[in-house]
Design goal:
This protein is mainly α. The chain contains ten helices and two strands; from the N terminus they run ααααααααβαβα. The chain has a two-stranded parallel sheet.
Length: about 230
């Protein structure tokens, strides 16, 4: 029997052995650890070379505070504008503010270094390349948000027995118009029968949250949360 199938069969054997049978706390702990071990062994065995490379980069990201700050800011802020020059200037500003992300492999750092030098001059060419590169990098972690594409992907996951909690990216809202759009988006997601649950970032519901106007902030947020 192939090794990976042995891990899966062992996991199912553990589940079958406890079905409908009372277990002591100690026995539950032991079997839970054994079950987790078999799942981890199977996951490790079936991981592709590309996935291992991506996991290594993600692990380095977690140990690079400035790299995390740069990446979060770039993905959440830089590509809001439709003006390539504005996008390029924002990326260059972040590179100057946070420095080069050290978690990235050398050739990606070299690309960012080139962007910092030539981005403003050749923004109409380099920004679309940067956007496509970022989209490709994120595609293994982030689903596309368009309704037709999202529904197809959710249906594929459901066919695999996977339940999803939908979290919309782009948490920062700069105006009440954006906050209203985000609230409408949450409401549309809740009406979608393919979506099991959603995560809501409270600060995305109201653009004017401030401690100086605590009561107004609380009142507005409470109203919009009640709507949800």
């Amino acid at each position: 029997m192939p090794l990976e199938l042995a891990h899966v069969d062992e996991a199912f054997d553990i589940l079958d052995s406890v079905h409908g049978k009372p277990q002591s706390i100690a026995e539950r702990k032991r079997l839970s650890i054994e079950l987790a071990l078999q799942i981890l062994r199977e996951a490790s065995h079936s991981t592709t070379v590309h996935e291992k490379s991506a996991q290594g980069q993600f692990s380095r990201l977690m140990s690079d505070p400035l790299g995390k700050a740069f990446t979060a800011a770039m993905t959440d802020i830089c590509f809001r504008s439709n003006d390539d020059r504005r996008v390029a200037d924002q990326i260059i500003f972040l590179l100057n503010q946070y420095g080069m992300p050290q978690y990235l492999p050398w050739f990606k750092r070299l690309q960012l270094h080139g962007f910092r030098i030539l981005g403003s001059l050749w923004s109409q060419y380099l920004v679309p390349i940067a956007a496509n590169t970022l989209r490709d990098e994120a595609s293994q972690y982030i689903l596309q948000g368009e309704s037709s594409t999202l529904n197809t992907l959710i249906e594929e996951r459901k066919a695999q027995g996977i339940c999803l909690d939908l979290t919309r990216l782009g948490e920062t809202v700069s105006s009440e118009c954006e906050a209203k759009k985000r609230l409408d988006q949450y409401l549309n997601d809740l009406e979608n029968p393919n979506i099991d649950s959603i995560s809501v970032k409270i600060s995305s519901l109201y653009s004017q949250i401030h401690l100086i106007d605590y009561e107004k902030s609380l009142e507005t947020l409470a109203e919009r949360l009640r709507t949800l």
